[in-house]
Amino acid sequence: MICRPKEGISMIRKSLTTLTAAALLAGSAAAQDAPPRPDQLEFRGLYKELVETNTTLSAGSCTLAAERMAARLKAAGFAEDQLVLFSVPEHPRDGGLVAILPGSSKKLKPMLLLAHIDVVEANRADWERDPFTLIEENGYFYARGTADDKAQAAIWTDTLIRFAKEGFKPKRTIKLALTCGEEASGAFNGAEWLANNRRELIDAEFALNEGGGGRSDGKGNVLVQTVQVGEKAYQDFTLTVTNPGGHSSQPVPDNAIYAMSQALERVGGYEFPLEFNDTTRAFFAKAGAMRHDETGAAMIALAANPEDKAAEATVNKDKMLHSLLRTTCVATMIKGGHAKNALPQSVSANVNCRMFPGRSAEETQAALAAAIGNPAIHIERDVKDKPIAKVPPLDPRVIGPMEVLVAKHFPGVPAIPAMSTGATDAVYLGAVGIPTYGAPGLWNDPDGNGTHGLNERIRVRALMEGRDYLYDLVKVLSGK
Residue 283: inside a domain, yes or no? Predict the structure, then answer.
């Protein structure tokens, strides 16, 4: 998930640290990772090929990665008309793939499996290992994209291959969309392009995406699995102030740096109002009950009464919980001035906002302007016409099977609906009426496994257990 982090959902998992010993033991897997099964060895080949295909914006090619996955699906028996490779002339390396496994029912709408195949940049000089060579070491796979999001992309592709080889005939048509551009705000985005230009290709009753998943104690014991039901919308705002400038030996009060400093101080001091939706209210109640501390009690109280200021003050001490309750905006970059011995003529700053579902960029911009209170500060959205984030319903037909399968694959581990403070491509599907859920299954360590950072990794067992879970989930949901 761009520097609009999927860290949002990993931080949600991180907050659930106080679980009972019984749940911990129930979630504990075998002390030693089991040797790979024959089908897992075959999957490793697909996963390796996808991970080792560089798909960074600067030097990689999503188009090549999509072509390689299409070739594997074709070898498994998919017909030419079931595979659609797409790209646009302006972005030939940012292409993607839609694959379709027809269902037997004419009444059931399709389901969509979505995953992005682009990855965050990775500088070889900074990494201990080559970021584009899959390396297995000490029970982990290391490389850029091992977790975000090529793990899920590889699993979705592998699932359709397994279905084709098994002769499995789903009742509900299954569609797979592998897309580019999720990690680079403002770049060509395949999910957005499909939603706006080839809606019929991805038309579905619901979609499964990244954003959900589990958290372990770092020792291989899964503590919780989450279902992402909603996320914030990402938007950057550029603040700019200009000034005639002049010689630094004759300073004047009207200084662009001072004006911007005052503006950012006011942004930092502004608190957006508290909000709940069905997902966050359920999360606060259920996750709060799992904690046996002051914060847990406050979460339960606040879910029951959002006007409880004492409970809010306690909850706000946790940065992740604080962010779940409101839109947040924070200054992330600043630049200005043109010479050490001159008064600044221009200063600009980036303010990054994560907007609560249902909130628009326009009203967020207006709130920033009111908080700053200086018309000399020009505010502009970096990305125009971005959809408003929509929360999908807590649909028991989708979430129920997820919970049942968590109980099967991870006995004793709770499955909790959660909203991400980060953002994914689900915003583009929601905008065209396709409710999108972040599926459980894959799980990570408390430190986030280096996602978006150095030495990204995923535990081999986490990948394989997630693969088994997601295979079963797709089979169940496509059969209903």
Answer: no
- Start-to-end Cα distance in the chain: 30
Out of 346, 364, 381, a domain closes at: 381
Separation of alpha carbons 276 and 176, rounded Å: 32
420-466 tens-digit pLDDT: 998 899 999 999 999 999 999 999 999 999 999 999 999 999 999 99
Residues 6 or more apart in contact with residue 274 via CB below 8 angstroms: 306, 312, 325, 326
Give the tens place of pLDDT for each residue, 358-381: 999 999 999 999 999 999 999 999
Q: Which amino acid is at 417?
A: P
Query: What is the torsion angle, in degrees rounded to the nearest 10, for the CA atoms of residue 291, residue 294, residue 298 and residue 301?
Result: 80
pLDDT at residue 102 tops 80: yes
**C-alpha 226, offset from chain centre:** 13
| CA 373 to each of CA 13, 23, 44, 335: distance values in angstroms, whole numbers, following the listed order | 38, 51, 56, 21
Same domain, 62 and 197: yes
Confidence (pTM): 0.89
Q: How many CB atoms lie within 10 A of CB 165?
A: 12
Written as six digits, the tokens of 439 are: 């599926």
Which strand (E) or helix (H) includes residue 43?
helix 38-51
Same domain, residue pair 393 and 367: no
Is residue 395 left, alpha or beta, with left meaning phi > 0 and alpha meaning psi from -120 to 50? beta
| 65 band by pLDDT with thresholds 50, 70 and 90 | very high
Distance CA 241, CA 349 (A): 9
Phi, psi of 398, deg, nearest 5: -100, -50
Instruction: Residue 24: give the domain boundaries.
Output: 7-231+389-478
Please, which pLDDT band fits residue 33 given cuts at 50, 70 and 90?
Answer: low
Secondary structure E strands in 300-456:
328-336, 342-343, 346-355, 378-381, 415-420, 436-438, 443-444
- One domain for residues 192 and 56: yes
Percent of the chain with pLDDT over 70: 93
User: At residue 17, does pLDDT exceed 90?
Assistant: no
- For tokens 């299409």, name the residue: 70
On the question of pLDDT at 10 being above 70, the answer is no
DSSP 89-112: TTEEEEEEEEEEE--S-SSSPPEE
58: nearest Cα among 6, 115, 122, 4: 122
Host H or E run for residue 222 = strand 222-231
